[in-house]
Write a structure and sequence with these properties.
Layout lengths: L1 H24 L5 H20 L3 H39 L2 H8 L1 H14 L5 H22 L13 H28 L5 H23 L7 H26 L4 H4 L5 H14 L5 H18 L1
Helix pairs in contact: 1-9, 1-11, 2-3, 2-8, 2-9, 3-7, 3-8, 4-6, 4-7, 5-7, 6-12, 8-9
């Protein structure tokens, strides 16, 4: 159980680092190209690891033969749709709005886990979710004081802001469906197989959109380094660690660790990008840590 908690926390930390890495890659790539290359490189690495033994190759072939529809669905909702909708949302609304809406990720995951998987929703899990929700909301509202309606991320109009918020909400639901749907997959296949095949189909769906956007491989060494870290760390490793944890924990309990992601992204923003550290951010981080601790206790 301890290893599962460590795996879930590590995945959340790696996902938190992805925001900084994505900002670096977006200096030379479009949002769709970034997503496609991220998952293209991640899938190549995962396929290489999955081919190291005859047993792993056999499992991969069996999963493709017997459950390819499941993995197409996971690639669609958790890779292709999730990243497309999230990136589009950021073009229509503020990053603060998207952050607030993405706070619903663990809650939707927990509710879908109870509804679709029949998992128990304990009072301890509910308390941890409540504390973490307060924490991430405080962090997001702290950012709101820094970027108001006239800030650099202000939308063109109220209508476009509403559209962006709706896209972010659909993206959040898509990601929650990926986590809950993948929970069923890891009861049959190992986490490496699930991560590899979901990433494979997701990347295949993203490539045509990325080519249409203007995909290029002429990148600076620094951007390539960020892209490789994004693909291998925040992509392949993070997703494998998440499915390892999800195979051993109820999604309602594992989902609380997703609240660690915005805390990490905030810390990196302050340390690397020089973004301001508000009282709300510090207080929010405390609530998040308290919520995760309560769930683990």
């Amino acid at each position: 159980m301890t290893r599962a908690y460590i795996a879930a926390g590590s995945a959340a930390i790696l996902w938190g680092a992805s925001f900084l890495l994505t900002k670096i890659t977006l200096t030379q790539l479009g949002p769709m190209a970034t997503a496609a290359l991220r998952w293209g490189v991640a899938t190549l690495a995962l396929l290489a690891v999955s081919s190291t033994t005859a047993h792993r190759r056999g499992t991969l072939r069996r999963a493709l033969r017997d459950d390819w529809r499941t993995f197409v669905g996971l690639g669609l909702v958790g890779v292709s749709l999730f990243y497309t909708l999230q990136n589009l949302a950021l073009t229509y609304t503020t990053s603060v709005d998207v952050g607030l809406i993405m706070n619903d990720f663990p809650i939707l995951t927990a509710v879908l886990g109870v509804w679709l998987l029949g998992e128990r929703f304990t009072w301890r899990a509910a308390g941890g979710l409540a504390l973490a929700t307060v924490g991430v909301t405080l962090i997001s509202l702290g950012g709101l004081t820094e970027a108001g309606a006239n800030g650099p991320f202000a939308p063109a109009s109220a209508h476009t802001r509403l559209l962006g918020n709706l896209l972010a909400l659909v993206a959040t639901l898509s990601g929650a469906l990926y986590i809950v749907g993948g929970k069923r997959a890891v009861t049959t296949y190992d986490p490496l197989t699930v991560t590899t095949l979901a990433g494979l189909f997701g990347a295949l769906m993203l490539i045509p959109v990325a080519v249409w956007e203007g995909l290029t491989l002429r990148l600076s060494p620094g951007v390539w380094a960020a892209l490789l870290a994004l693909a291998l760390g925040s992509g392949a490793a993070a997703n494998w660690l998440w499915w390892y944890a999800a195979d051993r924990l109820p999604v309602s309990r594992a989902g609380v660790f997703l609240y660690v992601t915005p805390v990490v992204s905030t810390i990196l923003g302050v340390a690397v990008l020089g973004e301001p550290l508000t009282v709300a951010t510090v207080a929010g981080a405390g609530f998040v840590i308290g919520g995760v601790t309560l769930v683990q206790a």
